Amino acid sequence: ETRKVSFFTARLAAFSITQERHLDLPYKHWVMRPLEPQVVELHIQAARYELSFVISQDGLRLKGPNLPELQEVMYEPGVGEAGGLSGPSGRRPRVRSPATLLNELRECGLNLMPKDSDADSLEGYSVKNQETQARAYSDLSEIAAFYDIASSHHNKALPQERAMVRIRENELLEVFDPLDPDCDTDYQALTFFPDKSCFVKSLERIHPCNETMLPSHVTHASLYLCFDRHPTPGANHADNLHRLEVTTSTVRFVEAVRQTMQLMRLLSFV
């Protein structure tokens, strides 16, 4: 309960406390939502803790849980000002590359970088196809600044070659609850394959999963093309497409989001 261990020993030696790699797996659910231009927040309900991260073009930072053993990962040493981002006692939030921060978390006993072999210890879980994951993380990172992206509980039951998430446009940076059954129809289900993706009819509250494509829709080689070739484009279709294009001003942010999703394996362990 206190996360502290005390013991006596008659031997002078180095000691360590070990734990199983999958102690914080699987993820129960997760959601990524835009906070401000080119900044998103990632909430993950893991097996033990609810974690919150902020992803920007500068990298990844841990926002919570605010545990004593995680303070050195969350904040820079010493005292400093960081505007509205200041932490306890004026400590500056610590931003690192996704790999660096997640490695530091692992050293603190919180492993959020699972390997394929970790799925063997989790009942009912199998690792998604590598090409499917790569396609999904790359495509989703390009829309993260404008859409909420939420996990789907149907994803676990799909074959390894297919993965599913839900998206919801969020231009006004509002906070929605992806688990609210009354909001189910506000999210659009999206299925990824190793070489394509498509919008499907699936809803969280309906079982089994309905993988039928939306009327007049077809699969496309990228998520961008799914938006581009939409059979009934809206009045602002051209503007919406333009904002989804990756440019020199957004590429660092997009890559930070992609790396974070890839390292955490968000589609294989949820």
Task: Describe what this molecule looks like in 3D.
- The chain has 270 residues and is an alpha+beta fold.
- It folds into two domains: 29-107, no CATH class; 125-264, no CATH class.
- It has helices at 71-74, 98-107, 130-143, 223-228, 237-244, 251-264, and strands spanning 29-36, 39-45, 50-56, 59-64, 147-151, 163-169, 188-192, 197-200.
- It has an eight-stranded antiparallel β-sheet.
- Strand 1 (29-36) and strand 2 (39-45) form a beta hairpin.
- Helix 3 (130-143) packs antiparallel against helix 6.
- The two termini are 26 Å apart.
- GO terms for molecular function: beta-tubulin binding; microtubule binding.
Reconstruct the topology from this structure.
Layout: E1 29-36, E2 39-45, E3 50-56, E4 59-64, H1 71-74, H2 98-107, H3 130-143, E5 147-151, E6 163-169, E7 188-192, E8 197-200, H4 223-228, H5 237-244, H6 251-264
Antiparallel strand pairs: 1-2, 1-5, 2-3, 3-4, 5-6, 6-7, 7-8
Helix pairs in contact: 3-6
